[in-house]
Amino acid sequence: MKKYAPFLVLVLALLIPVVLRQKPSLVYSLNLSMIYAISAQGLNLLMGIGGQISLGHAAFMAVGGYTSAVLVTVLHVPFGIALLAGVALSCAFGLVIGFPALRLQGFYLAIATLALGNVVTDIIKRLSITGGDYGLRNIPAPSLFGFTFGSSLSQFYLILAGLLLTVVVTRNFIRSKSGMALQAMRDSGTGAVAVGINASRYKLLAFVLASAFAGLAGVLYAHSVSYLNTGNFGLDLSINLLAITIIGGMGTVWGVVLGSLLWVFVRNLMGSGLEMLTGVLFGVILLLVVLFLPRGLSEIGYRISARFRSGHQRG
Amino acid sequence: MWTLVFRGLATGSIYSLTAMGIVLVLSTTNVMNFAQGDMGMFLAFIAFALLMRHVSYPVAIVAVVLVGLLLGALLERGLMAKVRKTTSYLGMLIVTLALTMILEGLAGYFFGTTPLLFPPALQGDPVHVLGAILDRQDLLSLAVAGVVVFVLFVVLYRTKIGIASRSLAEDEYAAKLLGIPVRSIYVFIWATSFGLAGLAGIMVAPKLSLEPGFMIVIQLKAFIAAVLGGMNSVVGAVVGGLLLGVMENLVAYYVPQIKDSFSLILVVVVLLFLPEGLFGRRAARGA
Fold first, then answer.
1. Residues 6 or more apart in contact with residue A49 via CB below 8 angstroms
2. Mean pLDDT value of segment B16-36
3. Are B268 and A239 in contact (CB < 8 Å)?
4. What would the pLDDT profile of B205-259 be if each residue is shown by its tens digit?
5. Of A105, A276, A286, the CB nearest to B98
6. Which helix (H) or strand (E) holds A205?
7. B81 — contact with chain A (CB < 8 Å)?
8. Which of A281, A152, A160 is nearest to A223 (CA)?
9. Does any CB of chain B come closer than 8 Å to the CB of residue A277?
């Protein structure tokens, strides 16, 4: 059962847009939630595996999105190259910022990432090439190898591919030597250092990887929403991404997908007039998760599947 | 020049009020409270609603501070006490983030997101003080901050509960061993901190416009002030807030290009090169 579950999910995911062909707005929401899931996957690596915190994650999305959008609109670079450039620059920012920031811990890291995230969006806002306060409009849809992902239906598959890529990378990272080292450090810093783990190197690796995911999400966001404004990448988004990660379940691979689906669809369901209450509802869910479900929503799935396999040992 | 400095002090006094709340909570209960600013925002909205119903200004201030005290006590009793048992500092930090989402959402739902004009407590022409020209509201917030600092220090250094709180900040385990009622102290600390949030909100609201996100900036600046002052020192929070206010005002006047980023760059520099701040005790901050 467990063996086939990923394939089942994949087939379902591939079929969803075909079923929903008549409802492009619904597909659009799905796309958006997958983009947030990609970005939150980075936070998941950082927090769930590395035990670090970042309150400036949205800024890396901005770096990726703006880089790619500027390259495509101003310099007419093909999307594929712009995509790689966006992710690369986001990585570079992660490296530059992570180097000093990761010397800090806990609260201090929270404040430093919060401040640096604000500085980054502030700089983007001040550059003229990025449209300043007005932002960038009419960013063209992504196109690869001569095929243009014009409709939200076709973009669905592109974004799904990106999501799967981050899931696979995360999964492998968790099982790799670096991932093991990070988890050891998260659970016992002194113990990990005592057995000779180079703490700062692995933390930096996780930070750069997290920035890369955020950059990828930013690029996909820019070209599917086709509008960028630094106001959308502030503290609000960083906090929401944090909430998505925790609600979905830190340290699990699929948790962020659950979390971001919940976020996007709760917001859609509330409709106009009640949209302010989305924050309230989401905040309450976040509280409940912290209180009762330390592994987030994926804990529920885990418990159900554990019940099916009762008799077997958990684990 | 003096006007710049005094205006900076007035803004700084708001930072100080907020930073004191943050530092009080952090040093005793070990929670980084991201909801301090938004609690101030929420309480300012309550004050606004009261003022619109023709409640007199002093009554509104007192009422809001009392509501803040009550909410702080409720938060500790109803939520923090439970969370503390199950999770680490990360969990508690996230609880305060959840709180900001709830508070901003509620404020937006009940009062709308259009910016409102909050009436100042003192109106009238600016006054001349020591060669500087100041708004009356600025003078008021300076005076309020001064009184609060004085009262807080008397409480922290001369009363039993204050000294007990400081002992908790110093060494929680030893404090428990000595029979200090830790749970009541936590309630006292959270209540005080949200009372301060209410004061800060009501003092700064007339200078900005009242909307659900208006305290975020103040909150950020208060964090920076707290870092500057050393994170675990209430004196540091006061001095850090005032210093930040003055520096910001001077920078905004002489180098306007970097006025938005100045404090953010400052905090990173301080964290890297002067991690224990101006008044903080040396503690493990880095890996």
1. A173, A174, A179, A182, A183, A186, A206, A251
2. 90
3. no
4. 888 888 888 888 899 899 999 988 887 788 889 999 999 999 998 998 888 877 7
5. A286
6. helix A199-225
7. no
8. A152
9. yes
